[in-house]
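Notes for week 9. Today we move from apo structures to complexes. The key idea is that a small molecule is not decoration. When we ask for a structure prediction with nicotinamide-adenine-dinucleotide present, the ligand SMILES becomes part of the input, just like the chain. The input block below holds both the sequence and the ligand string. Read it once before you look at the output, and try to guess where the molecule might sit.
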Amino acid sequence: MEDNTIPTAPGGKRIVFTGGSGKAGRHVIPYLLAQGHKVLNLDLMPFPDPSADVYTLKCDLTQSGQVFNALTSHFNMSGYLNDGLPQPPDVVIHFAAYARNMLVPDNECFQGNVASTYNVIEAACKLGVRKIIIASSETTYGVCFAQGDANYHSFPLEEDYDVDPEDSYALSKICGERTARTFARRYDVDIYALRIGNVIEPHEYERDFPGYLSAPRTRKRNAWSYIDARDLGQMCDLAIKKSGLGFQVFNATNDTITVHGTTKDFLAKEYPEIKITREMGEYEAPLSNRKMREVLGYKDVHGWRKYVKS
Ligand SMILES: NC(=O)c1ccc[n+]([C@@H]2O[C@H](COP(=O)([O-])OP(=O)(O)OC[C@H]3O[C@@H](n4cnc5c(N)ncnc54)[C@H](O)[C@@H]3O)[C@@H](O)[C@H]2O)c1
């Protein structure tokens, strides 16, 4: 592995990425490496692709001391070959979490996620990191893990929605957003929270989308929206490049609704009782990425129609 204490590509940043061994991180990290960034992964598990140019430091993020320490470590063993001692990174991207309910008891999900997000944001701010990106969730919109058949207040779901979930996981994500807002104000840094939609890996289109399309009501909990894991990489890179926005929330979804037909026809036929608050694009995802497109310049690459035979 090459020395990655100093970025080699112009504009390349030194990034500490948490939870990079998981479903999303294993695609986001390769995207970031391809843009010329250097990445250190903090996770409890090894990175699934041993050939990737990313070192994993085993670190329990619920332990504040470990987090502070890990944010001032070498990015890999070759860091010892330089004269310079390790410095804090340019950017911290925090994806590690219990990524849904029912992995552990609810109180552990809440405590683990809230503690790790607090620890990562606090350590990064106190060590002088100026850009932090955290994973929030579609579940904050209150339907994904609601008991029974809950309804959205209105469409499209956008960042100014009055999020009101009833489950512990989504609550932990809202606490993460509030923690981000608090520290962004106190330290005058950028902290962008990505409300990530249902993450789709390349192999999942062919396997899962035919079922989604034939039974659209089963996708209500995801608001008929998704995020391709590679496009999530693009979003992280754009968030790294856009500075000076302070605390921000961005929906992180692909452009289009996951049904056959237009958004207007689908919502009018299936959910006529739910208010529409603005004119929506012909195929716009109900969990809308308009802010991501307009503020960060996101361009959809992996639309589902490329991969699913109709
Ligand atoms: N997968 C989705 O559809 C989805 C949707 C919305 C939001 N999110 C959020 O996006 C992020 C990434 O999701 P994912 O699907 O890749 O999750 P994942 O469960 O596949 O990966 C999470 C990673 O975090 C690590 N981790 C957990 N606790 C840790 C701790 N205490 N210390 C260090 N590492 C720890 C795990 O080992 C794992 O590798 C999460 O924050 C999740 O809540 C995911």
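The CA atoms of residues 239 and 296 lie 7 Å apart.
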